[in-house]
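Need residues for this backbone.
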């Protein structure tokens, strides 16, 4: 039996008649952080959404702690212990920062630790503490991303998935998020992170998977990072066959 907390085998998914994810295999060990690399439009976001039930898997299996969750609803997957912080702004702008955080901690497993989780989020992100009574809709982009990550942590997951957590953020804010994730990792939380900032990715993860055309084409440790030229080729080089159709990544 696999020791992995998450084991994905032959995952396929897409939208309508368009297949985007074409047989992805990946695993996450307990306490491990993995990175997903690859050009935009090649399946990273779709793969993450299929793992967490936001997009229907059309093939393959997703196992979490040894149990098959491939056909489970997004709600039941959160209850099982996986939290997905998706790309883009999904916060409740008309609620305060504190209300958003408490709302994310409403699941039974999270309620028992809500006070402790809230304190940890405030320690990670002092700006979130300072803005706790402020409407989320009045925050800066960086502050909103901190709240989003905080909401993910409030659910008390065993596996936290972050899709483009530094997208569009200033270098100073990226550094703050990197430091926060390093502290999160010190607690033994498993992570999957997809992001366009490869320096950030290699700094916060143990291993990486390169995804092209909806498939994993390379895997390695983050300590064995590719050269700058290889990174450029990954993201802007010509890929035979063109990008996967209709990926929402």
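Answer:
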């Amino acid at each position: 039996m696999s020791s992995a907390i998450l084991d994905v085998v032959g995952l396929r998914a897409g939208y309508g008649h368009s297949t985007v994810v074409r047989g992805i295999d990946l695993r996450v060990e307990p306490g491990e952080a993995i990175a997903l690399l690859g050009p935009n439009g090649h399946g990273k976001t779709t793969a993450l959404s299929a793992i967490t039930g936001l997009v229907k898997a059309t093939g393959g299996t997703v196992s979490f702690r040894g149990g098959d969750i491939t056909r489970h609803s997004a709600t039941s997957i959160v209850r099982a212990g996986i939290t997905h912080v998706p790309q883009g702004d999904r916060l409740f702008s008309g609620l305060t920062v504190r209300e958003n955080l408490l709302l994310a901690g409403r699941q039974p497993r999270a309620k028992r630790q809500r006070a402790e989780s809230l304190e940890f989020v405030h320690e990670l992100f002092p700006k979130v503490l300072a803005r706790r009574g402020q409407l989320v809709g009045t925050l800066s982009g960086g502050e909103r991303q901190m709240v989003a990550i905080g909401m993910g942590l409030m659910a008390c997951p065993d596996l936290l998935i972050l899709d483009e957590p530094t997208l569009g953020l200033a270098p100073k804010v990226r550094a703050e998020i990197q430091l926060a994730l390093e502290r999160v990792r010190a607690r033994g939380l498993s992570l999957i992170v997809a992001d366009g900032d490869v320096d950030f990715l290699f700094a916060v993860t143990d291993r990486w998977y390169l995804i092209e055309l909806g498939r994993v084409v390379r895997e390695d440790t983050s300590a064995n990072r590719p050269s700058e030229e290889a990174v450029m080729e990954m993201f802007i080089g010509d890929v035979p066959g063109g990008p996967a159709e209709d990926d929402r990544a």
